[in-house]
Amino acid sequence: MKRLQVYPAPEITVTFDPNVCKHSGVCLMTLPAVFDVRRARWIDVDAAAADRIADAIDRCPSGALKYYRNASRDPDAADRLKAAVDANAKALADAADGSPGER
Ligand code: SF4
Fold first, then answer.
1. How far is the CA of 86 from the centre of ligand 1 (A)?
2. According to the model, what pLDDT value does residue 74 have?
3. Is 52 in a helix, a strand, or coil?
4. Who contacts 69 (Cβ-Cβ below 8 Å, separation ≥6)?
5. Whose C-alpha in 3, 5, 53, 65 is 20 to 30 A from the C-alpha of 86?
6. Probe target for ligand 1 pocket from 5, 14, 20, 23, with the most ligand atoms within 8 Å of CB
7. What is the atom index within ligand 1 of the atom nearest the CA of 30?
8. What pairs with residue 43 in β-bridges?
9. 3-state class percentages of the chain: helix first, strand second, coil last, to nearest 5
10. Are 99 and 10 in contact (CB under 8 A)?
11. DSSP letter at 35?
């Protein structure tokens, strides 16, 4: 189980769940300025307009990439982002505990 990666920017926050990525490379081909695995923080949310980032993420076939617009575009986004981060943290804690379902 790996930690959910969160890349915040004023207009859009992007998350990447390495547990579900299928390594299709669609993101890398669609928007290479933003998605570049040669960087330690491989998603640069400042490298393109938020709409272009959202369009690229909509093409991710696995759902590993998600985006959350700022409050003016999506009032519920902050709550959904927090829920995703919390769910990942719980899964990490359960995995560390060896809880049922993680074996
Ligand atoms: S498009 Fe989605 S599934 Fe494909 S490499 Fe990027 S994050 Fe992974």
1. 22
2. 94
3. helix
4. 11, 12, 50, 54, 77
5. 53
6. 23
7. 1
8. 35
9. 35, 15, 50
10. no
11. B
Question: Tokens 């990439």 sit at which residue?
Answer: 65
Distance CA 40, CA 49 (A): 21
State both tokens at 63. 């759902």
Look at the chain and count its residues.
103
Is the pTM here over 0.85, yes or no?
A: yes
Does pLDDT of 100 surpass 70? no
Q: What are phi and psi of 69, to 5 degrees?
A: -75, 165
22-70 pLDDT tens trace: 999 999 999 999 999 999 999 999 999 999 999 999 999 999 999 999 9
Domains along the chain with CATH numbers: 5-97 (3.30.70.20)
